[in-house]
Amino acid sequence: MKLILLGAPGAGKGTQAEIIAAKLRIPTISTGNILREAIRNETQTGLEAKRYMDGGMLVPDDVILGIVAERVAREDCKNGFILDGVPRTIAQAQALEDKGVCMDCVLSIEIDDAVIERRMTGRRVCASCGASYHVTAHPPRAGGVCDACGGELIIRKDDAPDTVRQRLKVFHEQTEALKGFYEKLGKLKLINGDQPIEAVTRDVLAALEIAQ
Ligand code: ADP
Ligand code: ADP
Ligand code: ZN
Known about the structure:
Blueprint: E1 2-7, H1 13-24, E2 28-30, H2 31-40, H3 44-54, H4 61-72, E3 81-84, H5 90-98, E4 105-110, H6 113-120, E5 123-126, E6 132-134, E7 153-154, H7 161-175, H8 178-184, E8 188-192, H9 197-207
Helix pairs in contact: 1-9, 2-3, 4-5
The site of zinc ion (ZN) has 8 residues, from loops.
């Protein structure tokens, strides 16, 4: 199973990716998480990406494509993977097709900007593994630490309301057109993201024809 999760920032891609990845025993490739780790480790890629990310802009396509090529070539991806947050431009999508990274299905998690702006103020992420939480919709079992790895939960700098609005603008200008791209390839399915997490998961599994 090779799956792409498409959707605006905060649509719930990371949350759903984590659930499906565990169920299917395939890895999630989140370019956002990989870039944040690169920033923490102060690598060359991290240094280059930081200024784009802090400003709510997209990181250049060549940086992203290098990251993805390296990641999908690893052993744990041989039975499939979930792409979370990539591709984000037509150029990225086209490059994946050209490289023969052929996806089975593209799910677009649909949700209004206003709902996202409200949601993002409550997002908390694990500083170690990148897992996503929410103060009310998806709180951690123990306050302030990650269920999965015990890491510290933090607020992402780019989840500040102004930066969220900028990221939504970039989504509509540069990423939303991917729906048409994958629709033409006959791979696109739409998922209603404005429902509780479990209901979204139910619809995702149904769209993928996987038993609940
Ligand atoms: P969200 O899940 O809220 O949409 P991500 O973690 O996917 O956020 O991305 C955070 C930031 O990382 C983006 O605003 C962008 O700067 C950068 N980024 C992540 N993935 C990509 C990508 N595929 N192309 C360009 N920039 C990316
Ligand atoms: P994305 O990866 O698309 O940026 P996340 O999965 O990180 O989005 O979700 C954004 C925020 O919304 C997180 O705080 C997450 O816990 C919360 N969230 C995710 N799905 C839902 C949902 N269906 N209902 C309410 N909150 C949600
Ligand atoms: Zn964690």
